[in-house]
């Protein structure tokens, strides 16, 4: 690891090789800063589910010369359709207002997206099955102790290790970050895309349950979930069958047939996390480690990539002696913007996560009158 970071003018360690960490590592590698990257998982371990990317995040790929390949592995979304609990269309939201003004919203398999981003990082700089045990952090450097007992000195450590960040737990006291649980969760499943619209996201939010359909190339991602107390009584297969019985014949009903991955499906615990501090001395947080998102607006990965680009920009214009100024500027540029987007996700969760049928009816009558821009008010403001 020491050899890999000694090539650059800044000795940077990135903890976590997900969307945020891989984006930052690729950008820094391109700019002559050769970070070491550690990842707790195996190299071949499954890398998650599905992403929706706004142009706010995907524009970073132009600078990495990856945007054309990104378009090849992703699918343009042209509309978002909300259904009522019976499966009938409640309202259709065309995405033209965003796609034409800012760039396409696209759906992509997270595993393919990670593979693309990671292709910009030299393999010899990445160390799998590795975690951090201890951080000695001061104004001059950071001394890191790894899971194998070895230690190394860095100019900067970036915690990009997700919502349950080990770096954040070592950096901040427990009252400096907080989780916000919703009490809801969901399973992520797959099925064939044949017979389904390739450019439409579909969701139904009902009294204590929901279904979401998200096309990505040749597969359809199917999200089924609800109140976790209710989910505890079902396997994914049983829950899919129960939901199919509730929904009338139609596209949502059909999507719950022939599901794949029921035995080892990904479960998403719907909570978010916000850190009151993003940095301390020579350690900085990025992506979900700084602010983790609910999936309700589909903006989390985009904000992580945008933040990675800003951090790379600031690091490319400094040296080890003046690193604190670059960190301060990164936080100043990104924290308020990110929290506004997170607030938008929380607002949509407030609308969506309803337990009573009467409340769902009231919510649906309100949504019928809403525009896409009003539902995504903070996100549109950020893109502007």
TrEMBL record:
Gene Ontology terms for molecular function: FAD binding
Classify the source by domain of life.
Bacteria
Pfam families with a match to the protein in the record: FAD_binding_3
Entry's transmembrane regions: 12-29
Task: List residues of the FAD-binding domain.
Answer: 10-316
List UniProt keywords, sorted A-Z: Membrane, Transmembrane, Transmembrane helix
Protein's UniProt name: FAD-binding domain-containing protein
Query: From what organism does this protein derive?
Result: Halodesulfovibrio spirochaetisodalis
Q: What is the lineage of its organism?
A: Bacteria, Pseudomonadati, Thermodesulfobacteriota, Desulfovibrionia, Desulfovibrionales
